[in-house]
Amino acid sequence: MMATITVVLSSTVVNVALPDIMGVFGIGQDQVQWMSTGFLAAMTGSMLLNAWLNEAIGVRATFVASLALFSAASVAGGLAPNEDVLTFARVGQGIAAGIVQPLAMIMIFRVFPNERGRAMGIYGIAVVLAPALGPTLGGWLTDNLSWRWVFYMGLPTSVAGMLLGSVFLPGRLGNGKPMRFDFFGLLLLTLFLVVSLYAVANGQRAGWDSNLIVGLSSLGVLLMLAFIVWELKNAQPLVNLAVFSVSRYAAATLVALIFGAGIFGSSYLVPLFVQTVQGYTPTLAGELLIPGGLILGLVFPIAGRLTDRFPAYIMVGTGLFVFGLSNMLMYDVNADTGFWRMALLVLLGRVGLGVMMPALNAGALSVLPPGMLAQGTGTINFVRQLGGAFGVSLLAATTEVRFAFHADTLAVTQTAGNGTTLELVSRVAGLDSSWGVPVTQASAGALNYLGQMVAAQAQSQAYGDGFALVAIVFWVGILPAMWMRPAR
C-alpha cells in the first residue's frame, strides 16, 4: 500500500502543476503533455519486467530497488533545469512505478484466495487516498513554495515502502532457474510506444497528413504487428498471448484498455481546464478533486464486497455508464461553471470508477487457470496503462484539433456585419479612451480583447469535446463488459 500510494500520487499530482511548468519553461500543451504521457508509457513497458525480475532477483530486491529508482528520479525532477530533464525524470519515475505496481495484485491473490474482492476493496484505500489528498497538497505547494516541491511529495511513502518491504516481503517465489527474458520483444514494444506517441503528440504541429506523421504512424503499425508475430513464435514471450484465448479475460482486457484511456485522460484534462479556462489556482484545482477522492474511498470497499456477491459484468457495466455520464455532463462546461457543479461531476465519475475497479480485476483474473495468473495480472495492468498512455496523448491532440476548429469557426463570424461584435469593440474602445488611452491604441486594444474572448470560448468548447469523447468511449466499453458474462 505504501508503494501504491507513492506511484498513484506521482501519476496524478503533477497535473495540477502543469500550467506553472508551462509558464516557467515557455512550452505549450503539446510539449507539457509528455510529462504525463512519458510517465505512463514508461510504466507500460516496464510492467512487463516485473515477472522476470521477481524470478531473477526476488520480490524483495525488485521492490526495494524500484522504489530507490523512483526516489532518485523524484529528486532529479525537483532539480530539473529544463523541460527535457524533467521529462526524463518522469520517465524514470514511470519505469519504477511500472515494475512495482503489479506486485500488489500478485501478493493479494497469493495471500487471499477466497476473499479477493474484499481484499481489493481494502487495498483500494491506498489508491484512493493519493488522488484525493495529493492534488490539494500539490496545489498548495505549487502556490506557496514552487512546483518543484510536487516531485518530492512521494519521497516519504517511498522510503517507508523500502523499509517495510525489506522486512515483510519474500525473496524469490520459486527455486528454479529464472526464465530467459524476451529483450527483443521489449525493444519492439518500446519502439512502438515511442514512435506512435510521438506521431500523435506532433500531428497537429506537423500536419496530420504530412509525410513525417504518416510515415511514423505506418512504422508504429508495422512495429506492433512485428511485436505480435514475435510473441506468438517465441517460446518464452514477453506477453503470453495465450491468455487472450480465454474469451471473458479478453473482454476484460478490452474494457481495461478503455478504462485506462478514460481515467488517465480525464484526470489530465480536468486540472488543465479549471486552471487555463476558469482561472483556478493550483490549490483550488486540487481542492476540486477532494470530494471525488473521498467518495471513492467510501465506494471502493463496498464495491469490493459486492464483487464477491454479484457478477463482475454488472458491476463493470454500471461503473462504465456512470463515469461516461459524468463526462458527458461536462460537455457544456465553460468559464462560468461553478466550483461545486464541477466538483459534483467529478464526484459522480469517481463513484463509477469505484464501482467497476474491483470487479474488473477480480472478474478478469478469476476466469484464468492458476498457471496463467501471473501472466494475466501483468497483461491486464499492461493493457490498462497502454490505454492511459494513448488516452492522454490522444485527448491532448483532440483538444488541440478542436481548439483550432472552434477558433476558426468563431473568427469567421467576427465581421463588420456582426452588430454584437461591433458593439463590443466600440464599448471596449470607449472604456479605454475614457481612461486616457489614445484612440488608435484603444481600437487595437479592443480588437485584442475580442481575440482573447474568441480564444477563450474556443478553448472551452475544445475541452468540452474532449470530455464528450471520454464519455462516448466509456459507453462503447459497455459492449465488451457484457462479453464478460459467463456462458449459460
UniProtKB/TrEMBL annotation:
This protein's UniProt keywords: Cell membrane, Membrane, Transmembrane, Transmembrane helix, Transport
Regions that span the bilayer: 35-53, 60-79, 91-112, 119-137, 149-169, 181-200, 212-230, 242-264, 284-303, 310-330, 342-368, 462-483
Major facilitator superfamily (MFS) profile domain sequence ranges: 1-488
Membrane topology: Multi-pass membrane protein
Main location: membrane
Organism: Ramlibacter lithotrophicus
Any GO molecular function: transmembrane transporter activity
Pfam families associated with the record: MFS_1
Matching PROSITE patterns: MFS
Family the UniProt entry places it in: Belongs to the major facilitator superfamily. EmrB family.
Signal peptide: none
GO cellular component: plasma membrane
Intracellular or extracellular location(s): Cell membrane
Family matches, as InterPro entries: EmrB-like, MFS, MFS_dom, MFS_trans_sf
This protein's name: DHA2 family efflux MFS transporter permease subunit
